[in-house]
Amino acid sequence: MNLPGMDVAALERFLREQDIDVRGELRVELISGGRSNLTFRAYDDMSKWVVRRPPVAGLTPSAHDMAREYTVTDALQKSAVPVAKTVAFDSEGTTLGAPMTVVEFVDGAVIRDQDDLTALSDEQVNTSAAELVRVLTELHAVRPEAVGLEKFGRPNGFLARQVNLWASQWERVKTRELPDVAALHAALSDALPQESASSIVHGDFRIDNTILDSADPGRVRAVVDWELSTLGDPLTDAALMCVYRTPIFDLVLGARAAWTSDRMPTPDALAQTYATVSGRDLGHWGFYLALANFKLGVIGEGISYRARQGSDAGSAAERAAEATPEFMAAGLRALKEGRN
To answer: 112, 160, 264, 327 - which has most CB atoms within 10 Å?
Structure first.
């Protein structure tokens, strides 16, 4: 079988060079691809691994940072945050033509869409959501210097850089003029909190970026997809987790996401659970919700822009920008409602 982005023979040579015992024939199959990093399951007669590398087209390095992903998961091995055991990292991309990470395969359930969610009872859904929030608070409680990540990012000025980053990204990917974008950018700049906390942030936290225990969905076996992680304000993670619950996010993903289902706790309930478990004050919460909406609106626009440039086929990708006006309007509402 032809697997774009994968060279099985080269992967096997790499594993053996890393003193990894490959028993029998190495087999590889694609787990997921598309706009995300390519994820493969590699296995022999005894062991299973997960191999990840950037997409073969439409590469945007900051969004597919394999070094970042490997660094943070390796650092968190002995923490309270569940992550896959790291195995090897090809930073130069000599094996597959792009940087590649190898971690142990974690058996479990990945709940991506609403069809997957039907396997869970309402009680299991609520228990899983509560556990996801607890795991996020565990991540935010890790002291970066205690795990060797004190230089993993630049927490000072993080919020201002985020606002400007997504405004700049808009200028690169916009497919039309939307007055609410400039309005929200200006409002966010005016509403920047003078002080903010700092922690390791995941940058993309929701149910489908975790692996749940198949027998006990209320237990997270591993948090995955760390390529957007950094040191920054933990409330950006919490707010993004809540804004991901917006049903219009389905257009951005091109699927009926499990996390947007009305069976999940409401965004307000998730926020309250996070505040209670973490002990953090949700000050300036309207700002954080607005920033999350701003980010997702720009991401949706970018997906459509790249689809029109030919780097991502399919009508679903072209429709992603339909969500952008709603996210921008929601961001303005979050600030206007005086929830800061």
So the answer is: 327
Give me the amino acid identity at 150: E
Residue with tokens 């869409």: 113
CATH 3.30.200.20 fits 8-104, yes or no: yes
Q: What is the mean pLDDT of residues 300-328?
A: 85
> Are 287 and 193 a contacting pair, CB within 8 Å?
yes
pLDDT digits 0-9 by tens, 129-184: 999 999 999 999 999 999 999 999 999 999 999 999 999 999 999 999 999 999 99
Closest CA to 64 of 293, 306, 299, 228: 228
**How far is residue 2's CA from residue 6's CA, in Å, rounded to a whole number?**
8
Mean pLDDT of 28-57: 87
pTM: 0.93
CATH 3.90.1200.10 spans which residues of the chain?
114-336
Positive/negative CA dihedral, 320, 321, 326, 330: positive
The confidence band for 56, taking pLDDT boundaries of 50, 70 and 90, is confident
| Count of Cβ atoms closer than 10 Å to residue 282 Cβ | 17
* Domain spanning 114-336: CATH 3.60.15.10: no
